[in-house]
Write a structure and sequence with these properties.
about 0% strand; mainly alpha; 2 helices; single chain
Length: about 70
């Protein structure tokens, strides 16, 4: 009888660890999503496509002089 009681407590411990781990993962993911949402709304949308900036033009100038 004593062995059966220890098996039950071990099973309960393993169940509690599994549930606790799953709950911790859900809380972490949802917390990261909530933290990132306002930040994404405030950031400007990046422009798509090619942009020729000053440092790109200076690089092109070095290529033409060779």
């Amino acid at each position: 009888m004593k062995k059966q009681a220890s098996d039950m407590s071990r099973r309960q411990l393993l169940k509690a660890l599994a549930v606790g781990s799953a709950a911790g993962a859900v809380a972490t993911v949802s917390g990261q999503a909530m933290a990132a949402a306002p930040q994404a709304a405030n950031e400007p949308k990046p422009q798509d496509g090619y942009r020729e900036t000053e440092h790109v033009r200076s690089y092109y100038d070095t290529l033409r002089n060779k």
